[in-house]
Amino acid sequence: MLTHTAAATGPATGLLASLGAWTWPGTTPDGQQVAHLLLAHRLGRTSHDTPDAIEARMRHLAQALGGLARAEDPAPETLGTLVTVGSHILLRFPGARWGLKLPTHPQWTRLVHDHGRAALILGLDPLAQSAGAPRLDAYLDTALARGQLLFGFACRTA
Predict the structure, then answer these.
(1) What is the pLDDT of residues 141-155, one digit of tens each?
(2) DSSP 11
(3) What is the per-residue pLDDT across 47-86, written as a single tens digit (0 to 9) for each?
(4) Which residues make beta-bridge pairs with 35?
(5) Cα-based distances in Å from 79 to 17, 67, 68
(6) Angstrom distance (rounded) from CA 154 to CA 87
(7) How far is CA 115 from CA 27, 86, 119, 140, in A?
(8) Residue 31: exposed, middle, or buried by beta-carbon count in 10 A (0-12, 13-18, 19+)?
């Protein structure tokens, strides 16, 4: 769900509306608790939504976020910010008119509030919005092996 934020100079509303978001609590390689956030383009609905076009849109989004890292590189802090609005958390994109309302649950939200950030994973391949945990795990494994995931950290605003 999109929520209005400010005047637009960043990612287009159509791109933001095409995104799926998944959140879950997890751990870092060194065993620390961290909130995870996956963004992926929903499956294409038109002939313009080819895999190459979707990947290009997602790479554009990665650039709008300030550049994201490949799996083997250190993950940077992104220009995307996590904003709490009532009981909801939005991901705001620099220069975008709208924020993306994220699916949340208490443990994930607590991690974001306690640590002030979430590990942002950007999938370059499309993924059905209805994907559950088994499909999500398979997507992450396959996309990681193919180098189709980019990484960063989205920080919470004070």
Answers:
(1) 999 999 999 999 999
(2) S
(3) 788 999 999 999 999 999 999 999 999 999 999 999 988 8
(4) 25, 118
(5) 19, 9, 10
(6) 18
(7) 12, 19, 11, 24
(8) exposed
